[in-house]
Amino acid sequence: MSALLRDLRFAARVLAKSPSYTFVAVFTLALGIGANTAIFSTVNAVLLRPLPYAQPERLVVLTETQPKFEEMSVAYLNYVDYRQQNSTFVDMGAFNDASVNITGKGEPERLKAQQFSQSVLPVLGVEPLLGRNFLAEEDRPRGPKAVILTHGFWQRRFAGDPDIVGKPITLDGAPWDVVGVMPPDFRFFGTSDVIIPIGLRADEPNYQSRGSHPGITVVGRLKPDVTIEQATADLRAVGDGLAKIHEQVQDTRARLQDMHEDLVEDLREGILLLYGAVMFVLLITAANVANLMLARAMTRQKEMRIRAALGAGRWRLVRQLLVESSLLGLVGGAMGLLVALWGVDLLAAARPQAIEVLGPIEVDAPVLAYTLAVALGTGLLFGLVPAIYASRQDLAQALKEADHRATAVGGHLRVRNLLVVVEVALALVLLVGAGLSLRGFAKLADVDPGFSPGDVLTMELSLPTTRYKTAAEVRRFWTELERRVAEIPGVVSVSASSGLPFAGASESSFLMAGEPRVIANTKMAVAYFVDAGHFETLKIPLHAGRTFTAHDTEETPLGLVIDQALADKFFPGQNPVGQQLQEGMSDKGIAEIVGVVGHVAHYGLDGPQRTQYQMYYAYRQLPAPIQARIASGMTLSVRTQGEPLGYATQVRAAVAAVDPEQPVFAVQTLEQYIADSVAPRRFTSALLSVFAALALVLAAVGLYATMAHSVAQRTHELGVRMALGAQPRHVVWLVVRQGLVLVAAGAALGLAGALALTRLMTSLLTQQVSPADPATYVGVTLLLVAIGLLATYIPAQRATRIDPMVALRQE
Known about the structure:
The chain is an alpha+beta fold. The longest helix is centred in the middle third of the chain and has 37 residues, at 314-350.
């Protein structure tokens, strides 16, 4: 230990005597280690950190599957039977998303709600911070109305009132008793404001139908030593028994997945891609600092030879040099930690919502341990080769050496050149990856969404059933609101709909006319429930027939507007207008196609549509109970003549004029929905671009440093050439050619690596860009060559200023 402390003190003195060298090395390491730590904090938060529940490895998520549908929510009655009849679970709990209005004290507000069965919190092993969980009698139809507040909402709305438990609050116009407040770190499949019992809805028609899958997911805790495979077999045996009794359960199977895997499966590839990119940056950083150390080792050859002559063995010299590089790594790591803290704040602000639900991105104990390991490992990595070369000494030469100037060693130069080639290759791989991602992202702007999103303001409203009990009351609200909004100066058109492109919609089954109603014949389409102004407001083009009018009501035959994709698939070469479909949303069973409109990119611009077909219902034609349920929560869309958000205050005032207690929420433009849909891709592309730019700069600096040092070592040679008549342009070309050889070698390796590695990015690329896109490869290669030319030209230009006589005298 004393020897190590002695080596550390000596290393600190040596580094302090070379402040320029030390600053450059530490600064370079801080960038590489800082970027690496920042991304690892995301890897840790999303992929490595256990879920904040008791024994999370035993938690699983249950959904259902059918031959035509890989994953569906669970039918409520099936959940009840799964829970009662299984033998492999400690317990199960059902949950769903919802929303409620809060009124009374303070401004009316729309809240995000989660519906929990009474068993969810015990399954998770979580208890409220204040109060209690739901009681069994509260988790059933017409039970007492109990609500649990999340910590953030409790602080925001009630200023953290410690006596809130037991007090009533008004949700959807009815009093609810607050029975608990959740801990501050509680998150469960997203964020919410309040938690309400799911059993209150258990007697609703879509909860009582085994053929209905109303958004319910089930979380379960496995018994000790039970595997997911065993539990799946157990639940499928339960399902087989149900299928013998209930026709609607036939072909429905239970599907289990580890809970953590269910949360991160869509995020893993993108995060690992970013982590791989930042590891490339770290390797380039290590190569850069190794290059610096090799150059410095050449200037310390005489020191090493004298120390060897005085009895220092080779291992002693290697150890001292490794201590120096490790100290550099630790100091660089400490500075990198500051960079990481800044980077983590940026990541936390820019992260997509899908990452946010997994918890905070932060520099915690595992991240600090990782940073220490990376700093030490990087120090050893970039210090090993210079240490080995610097410790190779010839004692006889050391004793005879009288020249104060260190001489170049051929091996050093070869290693430095090799390091530059590696840097260039790694930088090119990153540039190609970033280029493909950016090129694909840019091409999304050319994708036609099928409607005109510009100048459209949207906001959501949910009418409480306690005050809007009938379809007629709901219709009157929307009719009056649309009339008032249409009268606002600058409003072009207005509509209300349940479902918007990029903003969510239902999916509905249909069959062709005359087909038997069996699962094998069932087809699915995105179902929009709209009013007469929907197509005008969104500017969805009409291809055939007509759209809806004010005359399409419950008393008229049910009409459907379908999209062109559905028409092309099921009515090829025919006019679909006037044809009939069997549908499942109304009690009429048969609907006539009255129009065909263009297809809209409902699920995003950047990939195949999960459900290819779309159909539109006039919501006023649906049976009164369904009409009331759908129209009680819809989106108001307003096309304006100017900046849409500038109309938000006037539209809010129109809502208040119709119902002063009615909150509005999700006020944003239709263009923002599109922007949000590509947010994860934008996040990944932006970070890849930053890392690629950093890699390019580091590779250029490494190339410049190598060429500058090469020119310094070749002073005598270049002086002789110029004394013998070599022109400056010949000297420039001599140096530039040497640099271009390194760039070409690195580019060749990088292109080969990029072709292999970018195929792993397939799911992150858009359909419009191939992993082998020629324009991207050519573009980034030319960029790299241009930067390489600049990095070699500057030292080459300096070489032309060498005085031949001075160079000859130095030799």
